[in-house]
Specification:
This protein is α/β, with parallel strands linked by helices and 392 residues long. It contains 11 helices and 16 strands. The protein is 26% helix and 21% strand. The protein has a 6-stranded mixed sheet with strand order 5-4-3-14-15-16, with no helix packed on it. Strands 6-7-10-11-13-12 form a 6-stranded mixed sheet. The chain has a two-stranded antiparallel ribbon with strand order 1-2.
């Protein structure tokens, strides 16, 4: 309700009517005009058109293009990077010499100071601050990057498809990260690339688990509610994480030939040990994703995720296949420093490592000769926290 009131206030300030408009139904004398309902996107469009003329849209800065001919053997990734926190991890990651770096969500925390304005000024300022850090600018100038978002750079904690300002958040994101024309041409920020020669092709698929996602089902308030999240699994038919257009796109991408596929979800896929945000909130969608991945054209597969401010390695058996997921979070906003306590707090049969609550980033190494993938979690001094190797 608060969000609706804030949106209505902003619309009124912009000279727009939040109520349904009336249209002539051309039915002749005595007919009552019909109400025409406009979506928040439609209502806000004139305001954003004016805003584009008055604000500077931040950009992340120069970034080298990844040649499509590159044989990828090392990819790094990370999530949960606060623009106001130390940026020391960029030097650590640079020391690993990745050929590609993936920013997989909460790339800035633009909602921390948000006051409800439709212009998402706090998000815009957060992007500008992140771009100003020499550590980040130096890293970006050297290493190709791809990005998707999570809630804090989408605009509001735990928000999904009902967030009224999502299209302006998308424009800020796409401008900052220099998204391709293909991404800019469609709603959402999902993206895919295939790199490398035949026999050594790597497909990177960046999902958008925000723009289309259905509202979460919240648990009733209780003093005794367990500490592992306040959402309930929702298996209501029609509830979605990706939306039908993105689902169709994903099916088509997975049908393309590639030897290795890296599928990125900002939130965790495999684990069902908590009820914070994740695919566990929508059990039917989680099963649909695993089913869809299992139908892919032949290839190796690893899933990457973030969001949790802790990290771990996960596995699941699905339709005769062992699937793997590496969660890496956070680059500079860890919520703890006791890995043993974090592990004990969240027991999980799907996790094959400890649950690391220290700052971390992830590496994917590809051994083309052995047809093997190695997932590695690195700490904030690049010490190895956990490692898992598997063949495809």
């Amino acid at each position: 309700m608060r969000l609706k009131l804030l949106a209505a206030t902003t619309l009124a300030a912009a000279g727009l009517a939040a109520a349904p408009l009336l249209a002539d139904n051309h039915g002749g004398s005595g007919d009552v005009p019909k109400a025409v309902s406009l979506t928040p996107d439609q209502l806000l469009a004139p305001y954003y058109e004016q805003l584009r003329k008055t604000v500077t849209m931040p950009e992340a800065g120069p970034n080298p293009a990844l040649s499509p001919a590159t044989t990828l053997s090392r990819i790094a990734f990370g999530s949960c990077n606060h623009q106001s926190a130390p940026q020391h991890m960029w030097t650590q990651i640079a020391g690993q010499n990745p050929q590609l770096f993936l920013m997989i969500g909460d790339n800035v925390y633009g909602d921390n100071a948000w006051d409800g304005d439709a212009g998402l000024e706090s998000l815009r300022v957060s992007y500008a601050l992140q771009a100003s850090h020499p550590e980040f600018a130096g890293f970006r100038a050297k290493f190709p990057m791809m990005a998707t978002w999570d809630d804090h750079d989408f605009g509001l904690n735990d928000a999904g498809g009902s967030f009224p300002m999502r299209r302006w958040a998308e424009e800020l994101f796409e401008t900052f990260w220099g998204s391709s024309a293909e991404v800019r041409a469609r709603p959402g920020v999902y993206d895919s690339t295939i790199t490398g020669p035949v026999g050594k092709r790597v497909q990177v698929i960046l999902l958008d688990s925000r723009f289309f996602r259905s509202d979460l089902k919240r648990a009733a308030w209780s003093k005794d509610r367990p500490p592992l999240g306040g959402y309930l699994p929702d298996d209501t038919p029609g509830k979605t994480v990706l939306g039908e257009d993105q689902w169709a796109w994903l099916e088509a991408e997975l049908a393309k030939p590639a030897e290795v596929r890296i599928v990125v979800s900002s939130t965790q896929v495999i684990t069902q040990a908590h009820q914070f945000e994740g695919w566990t909130n929508f059990p039917l969608e989680r099963t649909r994703l695993l089913d869809t991945l299992s139908r892919r054209a032949p290839s190796g597969l690893v899933m990457l995720s973030g969001d949790r401010h802790a990290a771990g390695i996960y596995t699941v058996e699905h339709k005769g296949e062992t699937m793997w997921e590496l969660t890496s979070s956070s680059l500079n906003l860890a919520f703890g420093n006791n890995n043993d306590a974090s592990t004990a707090r969240e027991p999980d049969p799907a996790r094959v490592s400890k649950f690391f609550s220290v700052e971390n980033y992830g590496l994917i190494d590809i051994d083309w000769t052995a047809k093997a993938l190695t997932m590695t979690l690195k700490g904030n001094d690049s010490d190895t926290l956990a490692e898992q190797r598997f063949t495809w």
